[in-house]
Amino acid sequence: MVAQIVNAFNSSNYTRANTTEVEQGYNLCFNTSSSNDAFHVPTISANFAGGSVILNQQHTFVEVEAGLMCMTIVNATGNVTIPGNVVWGNAFQTDFYIQYDLGDNLLRIQTDQNCRSSGVI
Q1: The pLDDT of residue 118
Q2: Are 107 and 48 in contact, with CB atoms under 8 Å apart?
Q3: Cα Rg, the chain, nearest whole Å
Q4: Domain total for the chain?
Q5: Domain assignment present for 100
Q6: Residue 82 maps to a domain
Q7: Residue 28, domain member (yes or no)
Q8: Which residues form the Peptidase A1 domain (predicted)?
Q9: What pTM was computed for the model?
């Protein structure tokens, strides 16, 4: 997933902020101060066996410094070019109600408080 996001940004006016990535510990950061355009994140869909969750900029990027945006989805390998599992942090969970049903081995994600009525993700 992370590699696809990098590819989507390659055609943008944003340059990679490699120093910020190393210093801050993020996998993917962009310098947005050099662009006159507003920072725009492409549509990101987290696809699970039971459904999908559409993520917006609030769920995926954070401004770590003025003009520096970093992705909050972290590739478990620590390298954005190597496919692997991803870590969903607190930014991903903003505005969602998430139920971890360990008894039934299910994860439910819902935009309202009724996780029981939601589709299983």
Answers
A1: 52
A2: yes
A3: 16
A4: 1
A5: no
A6: yes
A7: yes
A8: 1-110
A9: 0.71
